[in-house]
Design goal:
The structure is a homotetramer. By secondary structure, the first copy, chain A, is of the alpha+beta class. Chain A folds into two domains: 37 residues, no CATH class; 98 residues, 2-Layer Sandwich (Alpha-Beta Plaits). Chain A has six helices and four strands; from the N terminus they run αααβαββαβα. The N terminus of chain A is likely disordered. At the A-B interface, helix 2, helix 3, helix 4, helix 5 and strand 4 of A face helix 3, helix 4, helix 5 and strand 4 of B. Strand 4 of chain C pairs antiparallel with strand 4 of chain D, so a sheet runs across the interface.
Chain lengths: 148, 148, 148, 148
Amino acid sequence: MSLFRSRPTLVSHTSRQLLITYRHHPSSQKMSFRDYSNLETPASCYVDFCLVPVGTGNVSVANEVADVQRVLKASGLKYTMHSAGTTVEGSWDEVMKVVGQAHAIVHQGGVKRVQTSMRVGTRTDKKQTAEDKVKRVEGILSGDQSPA
Amino acid sequence: MSLFRSRPTLVSHTSRQLLITYRHHPSSQKMSFRDYSNLETPASCYVDFCLVPVGTGNVSVANEVADVQRVLKASGLKYTMHSAGTTVEGSWDEVMKVVGQAHAIVHQGGVKRVQTSMRVGTRTDKKQTAEDKVKRVEGILSGDQSPA
Amino acid sequence: MSLFRSRPTLVSHTSRQLLITYRHHPSSQKMSFRDYSNLETPASCYVDFCLVPVGTGNVSVANEVADVQRVLKASGLKYTMHSAGTTVEGSWDEVMKVVGQAHAIVHQGGVKRVQTSMRVGTRTDKKQTAEDKVKRVEGILSGDQSPA
Amino acid sequence: MSLFRSRPTLVSHTSRQLLITYRHHPSSQKMSFRDYSNLETPASCYVDFCLVPVGTGNVSVANEVADVQRVLKASGLKYTMHSAGTTVEGSWDEVMKVVGQAHAIVHQGGVKRVQTSMRVGTRTDKKQTAEDKVKRVEGILSGDQSPA
């Protein structure tokens, strides 16, 4: 990740030139492929996900959601459950692993099919926590409350 | 699976006690952690994702989507682009890695923030490809078209 | 809606028979089409949505999110903002109208492209508020906290 | 739009004061409500949605998806089914109505709970069809395929 972090605009220009070049030179196509395999997943992300067990014959999904919360708790990652999903913060690989384990624990419970809707956000300009995002908007809206 | 099924409420209570206990006894912490850390992510899944670069000052996202398609091609995974996203099939870890690399390549292109919407499906009853799913529905609908 | 409510399983069976019939009788195809236009949208739903302005040249989306919160407030509908979106409750038509107005207000602010990710849930077995859903899961998890 | 742009911070403060004031003065409530209630939903949008019936006891969702396709066909809107959802194009109100009817038809079939994941896109700079979007990206990628 530090590699990726240590080469911002300049190298992204370089990699674009490579991509253009390889259109004319198969050899550089290999280079661009090697480049992709070296691509590291983001060092931090947030994922908001809503997992739905399919084919359970039970309209309630609360037991499966509770199982998922236990997996999240055991992961040691920062997470928050809300009424329409759960938000998890961590490195891309950590967060995606725990969501995959959430599918696994629900399958272990006997559910044959699991469908999840996810929102994933990454940014390179700064670290921003879930709280930061809400506070930022509430700060703007707080002006609406100010006396005339 | 059957094991898990054969120990319903009672043992789930027990495991809850472990979760409590571990706050005081590292030994049982290991137990509960081992339980979840042994959970493997699904061996196969499909992911349909739509990646949006944020803050680019460019209304078009076609260049970023093209970069993502190049990363997908290099991955060797089976994928299909449609007008509202791209569907990828493979193991959970493979697919999540390539989507993370898709974020990385877009960041390398100079985009500071990337937001992706994903649908993820896993099932344990059978393998079903993207084509299978469409054919299944078209098969049902084909009856609607049949001559009187 | 009361109509739809007042004809549960029986008429859904009837409509299935119509669908089958029309495969053989074009006349009943018309019926099934009329049937669809009579279909009312759900009387209640929840929508959790995350709106992203595209092409603004600004990495922060807080101002747009604040505009959206003002539209939601003016709607009189019940809503809650969290770090990864906002959950709104109401009739299908009311909720979808306000989300459309959220797109409109952001466009009015000069954003040429808006992309939103939504989760929508409807159920006919009972009314369940956002709070109910969280409490239900927390109730299950509270057992995890109980003394051994 | 230009109007809105020509009244930046100052008037947005004023409208904030109106929002406060209206809590005490129904008259100004009308004003602020008129402001938002006059907001029209977008004249065109695309929606890509994936509907999941919950609690059916049937792992397959093909019958419900087929019902949804019939509702879409009857709507007269332009739509395309793919393996991970269906993309529909039309005005905001038309598209949201048909997705609501999709929930309704699945409920009529006896499904008590329906969960849908949606991506919604609107833009004011130009009309772009689903085909346009795919062609645009394929055009960029076609350069990658060109012989050396």
